[in-house]
Design brief:
It is built from 4 helices and 11 strands, in the order βββαβββαββαβββα. The protein is of the alpha+beta class. The chain folds into 2 domains: 77 residues, Alpha-Beta Plaits; 74 residues, Probable tRNA modification gtpase trme, domain 1 (Gyrase A, domain 2). The strands form 2 sheets. The chain has a 6-stranded mixed beta sheet with strand order 1-2-8-11-10-9, covered by helices on one side. It has a 5-stranded antiparallel beta sheet with strand order 4-5-6-3-7. Strand 5 and strand 6 form a beta hairpin. The chain is elongated, with a radius of gyration of 18 Å.
């Protein structure tokens, strides 16, 4: 049975008879996470590297990966990294270092107000993710992260542990995403 928190779901209930047994997955909204987009031009990576290093953060991750454990640095594209953290001191410090206009080739955008972080945990995570994501985009190992589409919603997926995944998506779609996750976990397929 799926356990949901933070977002009510009309899809809760007992699984339909004859369908596969529900995956053991817990889904919850994670509060208090700041999300910063660290953007740079081709030769501006040094400014981003310096800003995160000044706050004791891991080196910038390679494509398809992330570094750290709150804060997390995520490779989001050739000219963008994401910083996810519950530490206001870290977020504010990086924000000051890369405030627009401070560096010629890099800047930061605070995406926190429009972002939502969901956490999926449990031994059913491995079974549920391929129902929601392109099977080629599912991060298989801890430390892997990817930008993909979760039921056609732009999403960043971080595999923290075998049975623990963070999803970063637009706040406006969080209830919709929770419904899909609930349905995939409980019935083995997305809503019709």
């Amino acid at each position: 049975m799926v356990e949901t928190q933070d977002v009510p779901s009309p899809l809760r209930g007992e699984p339909n008879a004859g369908l596969p047994s529900p995956a053991a997955v817990s889904v919850r909204g994670v509060t208090g996470v700041r999300v910063l987009s660290l953007r740079h031009l081709a030769s501006g990576t040094a400014a981003v590297t310096a800003a995160v290093a000044a706050h004791g953060l891991a080196p910038l991750p390679e494509p398809g990966a992330f570094c750290g454990t709150d804060p997390w640095l995520v490779w989001a594209g050739p000219t963008e990294f994401l910083l996810l953290t519950t530490s206001s001191a870290v977020a504010d410090g990086v924000h000051r270092a890369l405030a627009p206009g401070r560096e010629a080739l890099a800047c930061v955008l605070d995406l926190s107000a429009g972002s939502r972080v969901l956490e999926l945990t449990g031994h059913g995570v491995r079974d549920v993710l391929p129902q929601l994501l392109d099977a080629n985009a599912v991060p298989e190992q801890a430390g892997e992260g990817t930008r993909t589409r979760l039921v056609d919603i732009g999403t960043v997926v971080l595999r923290l542990e075998t049975d623990r995944v963070l999803l970063l998506l637009d706040q406006a779609y969080s209830v919709y995403a929770m419904h899909w996750i609930t349905q995939a976990s409980g019935a083995g397929s997305g809503p019709a």
